[in-house]
């Protein structure tokens, strides 16, 4: 499937119409300007992660005008979801299943898929956010992230409990197709000269799980090497939004390896992108629990409760399982929430 926006496809189609002129009147041929491979730029789902029924002018230019993690219409939505971004690819089928159960919400959901720490900052800013030259305000009904993050915000009064856990996930090493750096384990990430992308611990919750796995594989020394020494010498690049930057940097050749959720690697491979993964042994891996809770003073509390009930339903769990998530059970005791 092509990931070129329809406006670009239309322009290409129009360019195929031409008028024949005499050879003497034709301008000298000039070399074509190389174009970036737009297929590597997000958004990667050809508009499917947008619940708005009336979209007006479609204008997405991946290199310069591209709001990949904001979905739907923020004007008078009936349900607003702030979702930790590492399952952005599952949201479109989840929303479709939710709307099949509750048709009155059809085309009226808005959701954001940013790192959980950034979503908390937006909540504290009364729902206001600025991207480039655009500022808008939308107050969330539900916050979905790691269980520990949800419990923390319940304790802070930002969310209203209880926390509702629903699925678990594990880590993998994401590499470019062909694995040119020959990464075979977490310890290989500490090799000099291997360029890494790593989530920023300041606001990307997955960094906590990654650091735990690094310590299991190589002790505190490996954690320090990857997250301090290599950051200082420029061979670890910290992301601001790992679920977008990590695969993009790998496809662009900017980095050679990264640690992500295995569901993210599965999505990239399913999308046909030149991405592969290296399994992390169970003894070194870390399991995370995903959970949600209603935002205090949620504008749409009935819809919020319906979503939190739905997210644990067989329909929702079937969507998650497409990407390797496992339904949560209370027996999951070794997880780093």
From TrEMBL:
<keyword id="KW-0472">Membrane</keyword>
<protein>
    <submittedName>
        <fullName>ABC transporter substrate-binding protein</fullName>
    </submittedName>
</protein>
<dbReference type="GO" id="GO:0030973">
    <property type="term" value="F:molybdate ion binding"/>
</dbReference>
<feature type="signal peptide">
    <location>
        <begin position="1"/>
        <end position="25"/>
    </location>
</feature>
<keyword id="KW-0812">Transmembrane</keyword>
<feature type="transmembrane region" description="Helical">
    <location>
        <begin position="78"/>
        <end position="98"/>
    </location>
</feature>
<keyword id="KW-1133">Transmembrane helix</keyword>
<keyword id="KW-0732">Signal</keyword>
<dbReference type="InterPro" id="IPR050682">
    <property type="entry name" value="ModA/WtpA"/>
</dbReference>
<dbReference type="Pfam" id="PF13531">
    <property type="entry name" value="SBP_bac_11"/>
</dbReference>
<dbReference type="GO" id="GO:0015689">
    <property type="term" value="P:molybdate ion transport"/>
</dbReference>
């Amino acid at each position: 499937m092509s990931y070129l926006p329809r406006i670009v496809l239309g322009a290409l189609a129009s360019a195929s119409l031409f008028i024949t002129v005499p050879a003497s009147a034709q301008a000298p041929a000039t070399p074509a300007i190389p174009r970036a491979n737009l297929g590597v730029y997000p958004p990667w789902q050809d508009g499917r992660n947008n619940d708005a029924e009336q979209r007006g002018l479609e204008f997405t230019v991946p290199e310069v005008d591209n709001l990949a993690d904001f979905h739907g219409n923020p004007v008078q939505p009936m349900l607003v979801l702030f979702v930790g971004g590492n399952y952005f690819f599952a949201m479109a089928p989840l929303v479709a299943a939710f709307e099949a159960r509750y048709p009155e919400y059809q085309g009226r959901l808005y959701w954001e898929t940013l790192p959980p720490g950034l979503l908390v900052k937006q909540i504290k800013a009364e729902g206001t956010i600025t991207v480039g030259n655009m500022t808008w305000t939308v107050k969330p009904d539900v916050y979905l992230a790691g269980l520990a993050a949800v419990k923390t915000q319940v304790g802070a009064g930002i969310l209203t409990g209880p926390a509702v856990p629903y699925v678990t996930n594990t880590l993998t090493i994401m590499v470019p197709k062909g694995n040119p750096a020959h990464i075979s384990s977490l310890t290989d990430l500490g090799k000099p000269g291997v360029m890494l992308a790593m989530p920023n611990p300041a606001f990307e919750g997955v960094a906590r799980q990654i650091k735990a796995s690094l310590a299991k594989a190589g002790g505190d020394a490996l954690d320090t090497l990857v997250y301090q020494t290599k950051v200082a010498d420029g061979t670890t690049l910290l992301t601001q939004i790992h679920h977008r930057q990590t695969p993009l940097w790998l496809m662009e050749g900017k980095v050679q390896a990264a640690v992500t959720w295995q569901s993210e690697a599965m999505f990239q491979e399913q999308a046909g992108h030149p991405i592969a993964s290296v399994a992390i042994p169970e003894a070194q891996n870390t399991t995370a629990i995903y959970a949600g809770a209603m935002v205090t003073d949620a504008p749409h509390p009935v819809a919020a409760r319906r979503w939190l009930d739905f997210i644990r339903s067989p329909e929702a769990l079937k969507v998650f399982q497409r990407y390797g998530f496992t339904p949560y059970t209370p027996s999951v005791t070794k997880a780093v929430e």
